[in-house]
């Protein structure tokens, strides 16, 4: 029987770390981290995600402000709000809950958030920095998956990882992080041929598809580590239930370690969002000169970016 990678318990540890960073920022700089959460429209799933993020933020001492906008808002109106938040020194992190209504261009919105306030790691400058292997903000879900993997593998070097899914939010950054950890990485997607046999060769399988119980026991090498990112809502006898992209019961019989849904990657994603929020505060701290070492402490990154 596979070892359970308990995202709830692990996220509690990450949240403790965030809480201690919040305390240090308050003691050393008199700063209370502030996260602005922008929600457009009334998508019920997005409302739940936003509520959970703000609840966890408050539990670790991070302030949050919610901006709820009408579903029919224009691109310009949303841009004006994000501009104001970019220029508000009391706001350290900006999260625009995705997906956005069809009339809004997601890429334009993502690019309009200042890279230093980008707590999702979706801004192209941060995406580029991640691809280049530079120190940058890491998207929350893949970051959470890496923390889970490191619970099982103290050294990921040389492991063969198959990532199923190539979205900008999960699959691609996940593959980048695994590559940086010296894994050999295969990225599979909807056009991949022979996906089952690719998975069977993997030491690590990350399923980020959005397809209920796609990964079955005969896809998995005995002893492999399986991380299930998928969230699929199903109804059984009139009761709503969440299941992942992995057939949990069957795969548990074969895998060495497995994350459940719910209680796996989901709580890790929120914990990493809050870790990214304290990270954003640190990026925005003014430069200071350290007399003892004679060095300038980590400067804030400044970007020149032009939006037409
Ligand atoms: P997405 O943007 O829809 O991407 C899905 C990816 O899966 C695409 O790359 C797609 O390939 C690939 N795919 C679809 N059907 C496939 C198949 N039959 N075989 C192989 N690949 C297939 O979704 P996402 O945003 O990455 O999210 C993926 C899942 O994770 C969703 O269930 C989402 O709800 C969940 N999620 C969970 C968390 C969390 O915190 N737990 C966070 C984010 C997302 P193509 O590129 O070829 O279309």
- Strand arrangement, largest sheet? 1-11-8-7-5-6
Distance between the termini: 56 Å
> Which molecules are bound besides the chains?
NADP nicotinamide-adenine-dinucleotide phosphate
Helix fraction by DSSP (H/I, runs of at least 4)? 25-40%
Q: Looking at the chains present, what oligomeric state does this protein adopt? A: single chain
CATH architecture of the largest domain: 3-Layer(aba) Sandwich
Q: Tell how many strands the DSSP assignment holds.
A: 13
State the domain count.
2
Quick one: overall form? globular
Description:
The protein is of the alpha/beta class and 308 residues long. The chain folds into two domains: 27-128 and 267-297, Rossmann fold (3-Layer(aba) Sandwich), CATH 3.40.50; 153-263, NAD(P)-binding Rossmann-like Domain (Rossmann fold), CATH 3.40.50.720. 39% of the residues lie in helices and 18% in strands. It contains ten helices and 13 strands. The chain has helices at 7-29, 44-59, 75-86, 106-112, 124-131, 140-152, 171-180, 195-200, 248-252, 265-283; strands at residues 3-4, 34-40, 63-69, 93-96, 160-164, 184-188, 204-207, 225-228, 232-236, 239-243, 257-258, 289-290, 295-296. The strands form four sheets. A six-stranded parallel beta sheet has the order 1-11-8-7-5-6. Strands 3-2-4 form a three-stranded parallel beta sheet, sandwiched between helices. Strand 9 (232-236) and strand 10 form a beta hairpin. Bound molecules: NADP nicotinamide-adenine-dinucleotide phosphate.
């Amino acid at each position: 029987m596979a070892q359970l990678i308990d995202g709830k318990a692990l996220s509690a540890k990450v949240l403790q770390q965030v809480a201690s960073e919040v305390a240090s920022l308050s003691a050393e700089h008199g700063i209370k981290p502030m996260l602005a959460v922008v929600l457009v429209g009334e998508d019920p799933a997005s409302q739940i995600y936003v509520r959970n993020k703000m609840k966890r933020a408050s539990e670790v001492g991070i302030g949050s402000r919610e901006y709820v906008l009408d579903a029919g808002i224009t691109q310009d109106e949303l841009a004006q709000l994000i501009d104001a938040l970019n220029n508000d020194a009391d706001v350290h992190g900006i999260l625009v809950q995705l997906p956005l209504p069809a009339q809004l261009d997601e890429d334009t919105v993502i690019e309009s958030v200042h890279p230093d306030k980008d707590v999702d790691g979706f801004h192209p400058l941060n995406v580029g920095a991640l691809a280049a292997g530079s120190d940058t903000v890491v998207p929350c879900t893949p970051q959470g998956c890496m923390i889970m993997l490191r619970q099982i593998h103290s050294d990921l070097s040389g492991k063969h990882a198959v990532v199923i899914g190539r979205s900008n939010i999960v699959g691609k950054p996940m593959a980048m992080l695994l590559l940086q950890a010296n894994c050999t990485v295969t990225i599979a997607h909807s056009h991949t041929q022979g996906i089952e046999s690719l998975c069977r060769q993997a030491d690590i399988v990350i399923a980020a598809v959005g397809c209920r119980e796609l990964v079955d026991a005969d896809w998995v090498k005995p002893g492999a580590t399986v991380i299930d990112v998928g969230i699929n809502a199903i109804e059984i006898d009139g009761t709503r239930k969440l299941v992942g992209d992995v057939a949990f019961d069957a795969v548990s019989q074969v895998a060495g370690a497995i994350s459940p849904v719910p209680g796996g990657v989901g709580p890790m994603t929120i914990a990493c969002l809050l870790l990214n929020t304290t990270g954003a505060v640190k990026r925005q701290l003014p430069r200071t000169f350290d007399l003892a070492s004679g060095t300038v402490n980590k400067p804030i990154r400044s970007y020149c970016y032009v939006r037409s």
